[in-house]
Amino acid sequence: MIVNRNSKRNLILSAASLIVNKQGVEKLTLEAVAKEAGISKGGLLHHFPNKEALLKAMVEELTNGFVADVQNRANADTIEKGKWSRAYLQSTLGDLKEETSTALTTSFFTNKDLLGELQNQYSIWQKNLENDGIDPVDASIIRLVADGLWFSELFGIGKIDDELREKIIHKLQLMTK
C-alpha cells in the first residue's frame, strides 16, 4: 500500500486555514490545529516543529500554488502579446481561494518576513508584465487593479457590485490585447 506522505501535512495545513478563516489569526495555536485536524499534538509536531514552521508552510503553499497557476495560464495562452497580464488577471480574480487569503492574512499579521518569497515572485511577475508586448504602464495598471480588487474583496473594504466588477475585469482583459 502506497501512503501519500503529504496527506497528513495537507490535512494540518487545511485545519490551520480553517481556524484562521472561522476564528481569526489570534486563535491559531498548535493545539487548536491538532484538534481540528484530528491528530495528536505530537503528530502535528512531526510535520511542523513549531508555529513558525506551520506559518511558513502556509505561505509556501500559497506562493507555490499561485506561481504555478499564473505560469500554467501564461504557458497555455496561444497569444503571446499580453499573456502574462491575462494570466495574472485570471489567477488573481478568477477564483478567490480561501487558502490564499488565509495564508497571506496570517503571514501579514504574524510575521511579515514570511512574505519574502512572494515578494520576490511579484518582482519577477512585474518584469514579465513590463515585457509582455503591451504598454508597460497598462500591464502595471492591470496588475495593480487586480490586486486592489482582490484586497477589497478579501477585507470587505470598498466592495463593488458584481456587475461593475465584471465590467472592470472585462476592461482589464481588453487592455491585455
Q: Which tags fit this structure?
A:
single chain; 177 residues; mainly alpha; elongated
Structural class: mainly alpha
Question: Quick check: average pLDDT?
Answer: 86
| Fraction of helical residues | over 70%
Can you summarize the main beta sheet?
A: none
Strand count: 0
Strand % is: under 5%
Query: How far is the N terminus from the C terminus?
Result: 50 Å
Shape annotation? elongated
The helix-strand sequence is: HHHHHHHHH
Task: Figure out the total of helices.
Answer: 9
What does this entry look like structurally?
It is a single chain. It contains 9 helices and no strands. With 177 residues, the protein is mainly alpha-helical. The mean pLDDT is 86.
What is the strand and helix layout of this fold?
Blueprint: H1 6-23, H2 30-37, H3 41-47, H4 51-76, H5 83-93, H6 98-110, H7 116-130, H8 136-155, H9 162-175
Give a brief rundown of this model.
By secondary structure, the protein is mainly alpha-helical. 75% of the residues lie in helices and 0% in strands. The mean pLDDT is 86.
